[in-house]
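Batch job 17 of 40 flagged for manual review because the log was empty.
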Amino acid sequence: MPRRGGKRILVREAEQAIENMKFEIANELGLDYTGDLGELTSRQNGSVGGTITKRLVQQAQASMAGKQVAPAPPVQP
């Protein structure tokens, strides 16, 4: 199985879902993300990554509470 960042990829679908989230969140933040993280500043990359983390935590908390997860609201830049 391929490695990325020194970690094994356990669920290939999860990797694609995270990649899709990057595009979605960058778009919501008004960033021109074309798939090359080198095109964004560190601050912009951090904003995208931080928002992904927030959404994943919200989804996990909702899942643990037995609730359906609604789509997260758009991010305010």
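Reviewer: the log was empty due to a logging misconfiguration, but the result itself is present. Helices lie at 12-28, 42-64. Unflagging and moving on to job 18.
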